[in-house]
Amino acid sequence: MTSINGYPARPSVRAGEVIRLHVATSAPRFYVDFYRWGASPQHAGHVEWPGRAADPGEFDRDWQWPAYEFPVPRDWTSGVYVAVLSTEPTSGTPPMDSREARMLLVVTPAAPSGRKVLYKIPTFTYHAYNTAGGGCLYSASRVTFRRPGGGVGGPVKGLPDSYDPTSPRQTFAHWDAPFISWMEENGLEGDYCTDLDLHEGRLLGDGYRLLVSAAHDEYWSAQTRRNITTFRDAGGNLANFGANTCWWRVKVDLDNAALDCAKFPPGASAGTDPDSSYGCPDHWWESEPENALLGVSYRSGGGHWDGPRAPLGFTVTNSDHWVFSGTGLKTGDIFGRDGALIGYECDGAAYETDEQGRPRPTGQDGTPKDFEILGVAQLPTDWNFAAREPMAGPRAATLGLYTAAGTVFTAATTDWARLLATDPQVAAITRNVFTHLT
After folding, report:
1. Would you kindly state where each structural domain of the chain is located, as residue ranges?
2. Model pLDDT for residues 288-330, shown as the tens digit of each residue
3. Sign of the four-CA dihedral 83, 86, 91, 96
4. DSSP H helices in 154-294
5. Structurally, what CATH architecture does the domain formed by 4-108 represent?
6. Other CB atoms within 10 Å distance of the CB of residue 23
7. pTM for the structure as a whole
8. For residues 254-275, b (16+ Cβ closer than 10 Å) or e, as one string?
9. Is 394 helix (H, G, I), strand (E, B) or coil?
10. Phi, psi (rounded to 5 degrees) for 432
């Protein structure tokens, strides 16, 4: 079978503008079919082009494959689109996820749409784990966007997920796709963007009430964080249905085509685990703790990456809060345990208990003092834990929120999206957050 693969020149495009796609194949002709991801994949467009061959490149530099310009129709609805590449005409809807012959493309609105939700696709994180060209940000300090992969269409670093073996972790199909499907099945309309769009200062001023991030949004640039903080300070709300969020700081090159991340302490020996080390230049928590924006950090939580884990759920600490409306939960109840909701990675805040036995943040890790902890899950000692400063309180996932002009909610676990379709309490909480914060 003739091989084919490709990548977009940038991960997003405004509806009505032209996107440059780079494709290499030895076939004399190839075909591209575009599908918009939603409750189900919807075919959106088709194009045919003459094929041109090219050799694979390296992970840290532009592959410079043959370029093709595609004018994105202005009437394409903002969303996540998967471009399916083939060397022969096909029929029917193919699988959207694959390690080759796929490209991920986010279409942003042509003009302000009036929608209240903006959903952020973590392309920085997807490329950090993308091993196309023989490397990623776990073996090097620089990767390029201009290579196959970055959510779909490329090889991925990481262990398989015992709870969802249908797709690798660190891919669109694994993390964001189920959340977006649930949103659109439930009539929760939104526009879509990438972290690169927010890094560039786009979209957050277009009237959105709620910025949503889900699952595993680990790599943030300083500009992305600064722009989201400004959005919050102007009254915008943030819902983080994930964890390990804003853990590493990345720098985007001047062409917006590559990421740099200095993970290791100066003079670190081979095999050093940066998460367990101090003095890492691009650890957010060591210079500007992410707690100040998100209320939580991975350093007060932990991870369980390999194989089944002890089933954990959140113990409710205040069932009177609007977050739990309609769930039937009472203070002291546990939800999500049967589905191992406390997942692959989770975030927490340093806390202590008050006279009534309720958890209250100490604030020593940068968490706002008014962060309200609504659910807690203490972690077993056999989990993976990151380095942190000495502080009071256990390692625990802490679900909660705070308000500083805008409200910031965190679900504090990467596996929230996995339970949306099967756990009615997880779904009800999610719906409450959307309803209240929009």
Report:
1. 4-108
2. 999 999 999 999 999 999 999 999 999 999 999 999 999 999 9
3. negative
4. 176-185, 195-199, 222-233, 284-287, 291-294
5. Sandwich (2.60)
6. 23
7. 0.97
8. eeeebbbbbbbeeeeeeeeebb
9. coil
10. -60, -40
